[in-house]
Amino acid sequence: MNEDLNKKIDGYIKNIPSLSTTLSKVLEICNNPKASPADLNHIISLDPVLVGRVLKLINSAYYGLAVTSMVKAITMLGINTVKNLALSSAIIGSLNRKGTQGLNSEGYWRHSLCVGVAAKIIARKRGVDPKLHEEYFAAGLLHDIGKIPLNVVLPREYLLTIKSADTGKVSLVRTEAEYLGVTHNEVGARVFRAWRIEGALEDAVIHHHNAADYTGKHTDLLYNVMAANYFASLMEIGFAGDCHPEKPAPLVWKTLGISGDLFEDIRPVVDEEVAKAQIFLNL
User: Fold this and answer.
1) 14, 68, 169, 172: which is deepest, by most CB within 10 A?
2) Which range (59-73, 84-98, 121-135, 165-179) has the least confidence?
3) CA 198, CA 166: separation in Å to the nearest integer?
């Protein structure tokens, strides 16, 4: 990769506000299997903005409830939902949403939201433990986060990269590697590493275009996100610059135990859930 480009990307990532102390504590508590809603409330109550987001979510049309107690809200939402709400809203809120030349911000966020929702629904259809569904949602929502620094740092070049991928009828990630010398997977990994976010979410960011090279322990979530990403592109729900996405390898479908036929079945549910889940992007 061009050294000047490398510095620009690192400079942009460095200037993105780091995760707050409150959020770091939230993640720490949520990763403790013995944590309780009361433990989580103790930390969240110190952050008025996060309190507002949790209460707005539980009282939104998405859940249709009327709750004013934080402990009750956390109990009803579930610790994983609160964790991923906090993480997703913090990351999305800290990044530049302004549309530049390459990506249309509305199309990008709709694609990301669709992948999150589809990942969660596919996981549900496959019988994945419900406690893990929100992690699948967050991984899908954030899988393309590396496109944002590229779009902001290289607006003209990224637009040309997207156009070249379309003209050549090849995937965007291949064209990024050829024209820019870096892919959105790699840039997304750098964002997450700067924030010290590891595990399944990081793996989804790094490997959602290269299942064959993956040797980690989050195969199910990764493959699930890959299928959801292909669904969003195939169904043209939102747009994140990839006009000719590569179909996931046969290994992905075989491991998940599904086929592309599932897509038509889940489309109405995904459309409905995407409309409801806009709350996650409007907090």
Assistant:
1) 172
2) 84-98
3) 33
